[in-house]
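Project channel, design review

CF: Before we commit to the Pseudonocardia kongjuensis constructs, I'd like one complete example in the thread so the newer folks can see what an input/output pair looks like. Taking D-2-hydroxyacid dehydrogenase.
RD: sounds good, go ahead.
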Amino acid sequence: MLHAGETPPGLEARAGDARLRFAADADELVGALPGSDVLLTWDFTSDAVKKVWHDDLARSLRWVHTASAGVDRVAFPELLAAPLTLTNSRGVFDRPIAEFVLGAVLAFAKDTARSLALQRDRTWRHRETETIAGRIATVVGSGPIGQAIAQLLAAAGLDVRLVGRRAADGVHAFDELPGLLPDSDFLVLAAPLTGATRGMLHSGTIALLPERARVINIGRGPLVVQDDLTAALASGRIAGAALDVFEVEPLPADSPLWTMENVLISPHMSGDVVGWKDMLVELFVDNLERYRTGRELRNVVDKERGYVSSSGGRA
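CF: and here is what came back for D-2-hydroxyacid dehydrogenase:
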C-alpha cells in the first residue's frame, strides 16, 4: 500500500499489517509504485500521479483512493482505462461545505464585509440589509454535497432548486439550468468537474442571471470561466461572488478578484473543519479493511461519469 503526500494522522497505527510506502513527490512516487496494489492520494492538489503514470509502472495497482470528493486530479484517461477501482472521500465534506455556503449567503445578505470594513475605519454608518427568507437559490450538483446545501438553505427559508445530471424527484435536469437562472438570487456551484460541467458558467450563462445574483463556487475552479466572471463582477453585471476554488490555485496575487468589494475569497477550505483529516483517515481505513476482506468498497467512482453514481461497488 502506498501513500503520496504528508502522513495522514493515525494511519500507520491503524493500517494493520499493510506495508506502507510513503512518497512525498513525483520522484519518490516512481520508486514506490511498482508492486503496490493500493494507492492513497492524500494531497488532493497534486498532479504527481498523472505526471509519473504509465501502465508498466502501475501494473500491480488494484485500487486508488483520493482524499477528496472530486476526482479530477486522478481521473486522467490512462488511469481510468486501467483495470482498477477508483474511490473518493464522499461524505466527509457534505455538512461543512453546506454550512460554508449558508455562511456566504448570510454574509452577502447582511453586508458583513462592509460592516467589517467600516469597523476597521471606526465609522458608524446605519444601513438596511436583506432577508434571505423567500430568496431563490439554484444549486448545481445533486450529489451528497449539493443535497446537504439544499437542505440547509431550505431550512433557513430559501426556495431551493436542485440541479443534477438528469431529472429526478425534486431534481431538475442540467439542461433545464438556463431556464432557472433568470430568477436566481444565489447560484451555488457544487457539481463535479466533468466534460459537461467544465466552463458551465461563462459570459452566456452569466447574462441570464439577474443583476442581484450572487455566485458561490465550492465545486471546482474550472466550472467557471474566471475571466468572464471577473468581468461581470467588475461591471456590476451581477452583485457578487463567494469563491472557494479557482482556475489556478493559489489565486495569483495580481488577480483583480482580490480587491473587489463584492467578492469573498477563501483558499479552497470550505470543507476543512477541525478533525477533517481524521475523518478522511477513518473512511480510508474502513475501505482498506473492506478491500482486504473482499467486501464491497464505499464510494466507488463511475469512471465514465466521473463521480460516485451509487452507494457502493466492488473492488
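RD: helpful, thanks. Residues 311-315 have pLDDT under 50 and may be disordered.
CF: The two ends are 15 Å apart (CA to CA).
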